[in-house]
Amino acid sequence: MAFLTLLDLKRKGKKLKKRYQIDVLSATEHRARLQSPLWEKNEALLTDLKRYLEKIPEVSAVRVTPLIGTVTVYYQIPADFPKSRVQEIEQKLIAIHERNGVNGLE
């Protein structure tokens, strides 16, 4: 399963918006820029998200902009990235949001 590929992000964009209030602002083969009103001016949450994402071996860099609530992720994800790992990452990201007082994510 491809994870965070351009095609995948375009297909998943509506799901991200509906489920997590995340908009895909732009995406290329190795970079995605995401925005959420939940992240605006929430420096603690974005710092925690950045720390976690930077620990993922396939992620080369993460930039956050708390003022406008954006996260830019630079990555090199193999096509055979396991779905179980995607689900594990998703659950950890939800837990980070909850720990920072952002509840209601599925």
For this entry, give a set of tags.
single chain, globular, alpha+beta, four-stranded antiparallel β-sheet, 106 residues, 4 strands
Structure notes:
- With 106 residues, the chain is α+β, with helices and mostly antiparallel strands.
- Helices cover 42% and strands 23% of the residues.
- A four-stranded antiparallel sheet has the order 1-2-4-3, with helices on one face.
- The chain is globular.
Question: Which helices and strands occur, and which strands form pairs?
Answer:
Elements: H1 6-20, E1 23-28, E2 31-35, H2 43-54, E3 59-65, E4 70-75, H3 83-99
Helix pairs in contact: 2-3
Please state the structural category: alpha+beta
Rg over CA atoms: 13 Å
Query: Main sheet: which strands, in order across?
Result: 1-2-4-3
Question: Looking at the structure, what is the overall shape?
Answer: globular
Helical run tally: 3
User: Could you describe the largest sheet, including whether it forms a barrel?
Assistant: 4 strands, antiparallel
Mean pLDDT: 85
List segments where confidence is low: pLDDT < 50 over at least 5 consecutive residues.
none
Helix content bin: 40-55%
What's the N-to-C terminus distance?
21 Å
Q: Strand tally, please?
A: 4
Taken as a percent bin, the fraction of beta residues is: 15-25%
Q: What is the chain-wise order of helices and strands?
A: HEEHEEH
Summarize the structure.
This protein is an alpha+beta fold and 106 residues long.
